[in-house]
Amino acid sequence: MMPAIVPHLVGFHPERSVVAVGLGPDGRTVGVTMRVDIPMPGDRTAQLTRDMWTPCIGALTSVAAHDVILLLYPHAADDPWRDDDLARDLPDRDLLAEIAALLEDAGMNPLDALCVVGERWRSYWCADPRCCPTTGRTVDPEEAMRARLLFVQHGSAPLASRTDLVASLEPRPDTDPLRVRVHALRASAPPVVADLVSEIGAYVAAISRWGDDPSDAVGLEGLAARAFGFCEVIPSRDLLLRALTVGGDRDLLLPTRAVLSEAVRCADLTSVAPLATVLAVCAWVSGAGAAARVALDRAVEVEPAYSLAGLVTAALDAGTPPWTWSAMMADLSVEEILEAGWVTTPRPVSPEVAAAFAELGVASLDEIAELVVDDADFAERHDDGQDDYASDSDNDSEDDSEDESDAGGGGAEPGAL
Question: Do residues 21 and 2 make contact, with C-beta atoms less than 8 angstroms apart?
Fold first, then answer.
């Protein structure tokens, strides 16, 4: 069953990857899913494995994962079933042993490790040929269909590969008709006025209505064009993020991501970073960590010092659960967002929120708020981290720790196994 679920958790069908699925205390709900590239054999060292997996273990720890299932998607040349007439041992056993040891050192239980190629899989650690024959096993078609339908009902549509995920944000050519229309609408759009709350409320409601009929191309163009004005100005950007992410409504976030993705594709270079970063936050809060990483890549590719992108990257690197963002935005009032300066008296936050953001090096909500409004000091302090992230963009996390995705029992929700 797990091989059928993972593409929905990651957002695409993994290739040349190790995926770690961290289970919650009940052993049935998915807390977080991490994907890491398999290093080339000539580059692989124990230290490299440790360096690549340390952030992942931090993320698993942050959601209190105890049992972890590892799935290895091998290079094509290492496919143990590429020739049905020849039985081969499973590849990369040493790599999985190193990862399992790191998990055990962190107090976690590596429950199982699977080699997955298409619909075929086999356990690395099961020695019973009746259970795991050398020819592998296939996922039960009926069970796989049921699981996939549950995810599809929640808007999940995994792409064929991470390359396709990156391509989904590729810029449209200047002469592309849709891009031309979006920019024409943007040029004729009225300016953002003082009553930002009402304007943003109407905009979010329009996105929700469009989500009921996503085939409305004209509606999509208008919403994408309007996104420019809201995202390029910090107060309206943060009010929009507050309206979109407090509560983490995935029925709203899914069409929002479609609108913002189109806006990013149509944007000129000066507009990419704010649009892509707002898109990344929406993806992160909806549990699509890989999509958030790709959007952040696009943002920092164009504007490496865009500090909100740095904040979100740092949160993802630290394995911060997405609900902490929603909680932070809920704690910020509209008046505070609209103020030119930020209050200096620390405001209390819940222990959970404080603990989750402690790893980011911030001590209070006010300090976090300063980062949200593009504190230049944050960008300076995280320059190195941004550079590291930009050069290591293929390590992705999918965090499914939100209550609404994990609460279902007996497989009723995508977060339940």
Answer: yes
C-alpha to C-alpha distance for 235 and 27, rounded to whole angstroms: 42
Report the candidate in 144, 54, 42, 48 with the shortest Cα–Cα distance to residue 103.
54
Residue pLDDT, tens place only, 252-287: 998 999 999 999 999 999 899 999 999 999 999 887
Would you tell me how many other CB atoms lie within 10 Å of the CB of residue 110?
19
2-153: CATH topology is: Cytidine Deaminase; domain 2 (3.40.140)
Give CA 213 to chain center in angstroms: 25
Q: Which two tokens stand for residue 29?
A: 């709900």
| pTM of the predicted structure, to 2 decimals | 0.68
Residue partners of 177: CB distance under 8 A and separation at least 6: none
At 143-158, the pLDDT tens digits run: 666 666 666 555 566 6
First-to-last C-alpha distance (Å) of the chain: 8
Give the integer Cα–Cα distance in Å for 67 and 16.
23
The one-letter code for the residue type at 115 is: C
The answer to whether 3 and 139 have CB atoms below 8 angstroms apart is yes
Query: pLDDT tens digit string along 290-325?
Result: 889 999 999 999 999 998 999 999 888 777 878 889
* 356-383 per-residue burial string, b: 16 or more CB within 10 A, e: under 16: bbeebebebbbbbbbbbbbbeebbeebe
Task: Tell me the pLDDT of the chain averaged across its residues.
Answer: 78
The CATH 3.40.140 domain(s) of the chain lie at 2-153
- 38: Cβ contacts below 8 Å, ≥ 6 apart: 16, 17, 18, 72, 73, 74, 75, 92, 95
**What's the token pair of residue 112?**
């199982």
Q: How far apart are CA 324 and CA 303, in angstroms?
A: 25
